[in-house]
Amino acid sequence: QVRFVESGGGLVQPGGSLRLSCAASGFTFSSTPMSWYRQAPRKQREWVAFISSGGSTNYADSVKGRFTISRDNAKNTVYLQMNSLKPEDTAVYYCNRAGISIDWGQGTQVTVSS
Description:
Largest sheet: 6 strands, mixed
Shape: globular
Structural class: mainly beta
Radius of gyration: 13 Å
Number of strands: 10
Order of helices and strands: EEEEEEEEEE
Distance between the termini: 40 Å
């Protein structure tokens, strides 16, 4: 079955960096567009970044210029490099196939605080 295992979150000070990883299984990863999403407390889940099967990327305005999505098809893994983190980036971060809202993983908590 489809499975996502997110990792790499933690507590970081404003201006710091984190690199999130998401190991995917249960589908043909290399041909599947992927996205990162996040859900802050008391807010709806929102889309953060997209990467096509060919490596084209797109970002939410709130993270553009600070976050970078990438993928390693040999490892069935998608990454999110997050730089210049802000307190408003605090959320649980999830990956999934782009445009699909089922089969969510447990996510990884990112907390940006001094």
